Amino acid sequence: SSSSNVRSREGEEAMPTEDLQENKRLCIGAVAVDEAPDDLICSYESSLAMKAATPSEVIRSKWTEINKLDGFELFVRQDYDQRHQRRLMKVYEHTWVVGVKDSGELKARLTCCDYNDGEEVPGKFCPTPSSIAVRVFEAVSLIKGYHERHSDVVSAFPHAPEEADVFMQAPKEWMEAHGKTRAMGCWRLVRSLYGRRTAGGNFRDFFEKTVKEVKNTDFDRCPEEPCLYRDKISDVALLHHVDDEKTHGPDKLHDGILDEIERQLLTKRGDRMISGSKDQYLGRTKYRFTTKDSD
After folding, report:
1. Among 51, 107, 129, 240, which is 20 to 30 Å from 4 by CA?
2. Tens digit of pLDDT for each residue in 16-66?
3. Looking at the whole model, is its pTM more than 0.70?
4. Which H, E and C letters describe 234-293, residue by residue?
5. Exposure letters 4-26 (e unless 16+ CB within 10 A, then b)
6. In 10 A of CB 36, how many CB atoms?
7. In Å, how far are 118, 225, 260 from 220, measured between CA atoms?
């Protein structure tokens, strides 16, 4: 209701709590926290945590996301006459997706409503490594005595340029703060935003370009595993699953190459996997047990 500032998406019923506990990654329906009928928020985490969030906390998490995207220089502010120019260019809508991190922090993500219409879109291909590639990578690390590192690219897709002319309706919060109305304001996306069908492919191309341009290296991409790269000079190897990296190599050269990559990619670098340590990679806990370690 408008008095509580919470309502369900029209035509959808809330999912029972027991079903949510069985699968917390399901979209449980939209919850709006303001009066805009198209301003929908989907929770992909615990419904109980989402219900505990206040409207002011949700608004704060939205502004954190808007400011972060502004820091990436993701968009160019542009005015347009909706009645005239909407006939000349496509303006995508947006959706806010809100969830709760493992830490309990509320996280809002702005996504572009570039829905799949069944047509193939050039440039949207984004491969992922096979399970065999992951196991072989880990086996080579153990055989050679290399320490692995698991890293995560923060806000991966906005790193990559948007190749097409893409216009998106600006968020209501941003328009109100800048004195804009829905009919007179939009963003031109100059970097890739979540929800764009080409965003994954754009980031994959940007990631490969970054790796291959690291100075004093000669990285080759494996012809059989397009997510696997190896530097013929240092023997450092890198396997990536979209924004999750797994790397190994001689420690000094390994860390130096990661330093160079992180000049272009905002990354959370994991600790070295030494004997007796464990870490998470793609939802699995990895343990390292070996007596052989490289210098």
Report:
1. 107
2. 333 333 333 332 233 333 333 333 334 344 455 556 678 888 899 999 999
3. yes
4. CCCEEEEECCEEEEEECHHHHHHHHHHHCCCCCEEECCCECCCCEEEECCEEEECCCCCC
5. eeeeebeeeeebeeeebeeebee
6. 12
7. 34, 11, 17
